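Researcher: Please predict.
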Amino acid sequence: MKRLSATSAALTAAALAAAVALPAAASTGTSNGGASASPEQYESSQDARARTADYDSVKATWYGPGLYGNRLACGGRLTHRTIGVAHKRLPCGSKVALKYRGRTVVVPVIDRGPYARGVSYDLTEATARKLGMTQTAHLAAAPLGD
C-alpha cells in the first residue's frame, strides 16, 4: 500500500469531511442558499393570488394551429406547448388568472390581440387545452399584474 504524504492525507481528510458536512448542512438549513423559488412555491403563490382576485366575465377565443413558428409580440415563437394569452393593452409578461368550468390557470401575457369584436382574450392552444376549452367561450379572467 502506498503511503500518502502529510499534505495529501490532510487534503483527503478535508475533502471527505466537506463531502459529509455539506449534505447535512443543506438538509438542516432553513435558507434555500440563494436559489430561486421552487416551481411548487411559485405556483402556490400564484394560486393564492388567483383565489383572491377580482374576476370579470369575458369572451375568449383560442389560436395556434397554422400559426406555429410565428413570432409573438412579447418575444419568442408560438409552439403547440406555449402557455399564455394575447391581450390588447395588458403589459407583456403580466399574469392573468383564468377560470373555466372549475379549472383555474395563471398565465402570462405573451402576445397582442385578439382583433375580433367583443373578444377580450386570445388563449394559446395549450392554455385552452389546460382549461378544457374547445371553442370560443365566456370565462372568468382577472389581471394579476406581474
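Model: Residues 91 and 129 are 24 Å apart (CA to CA).
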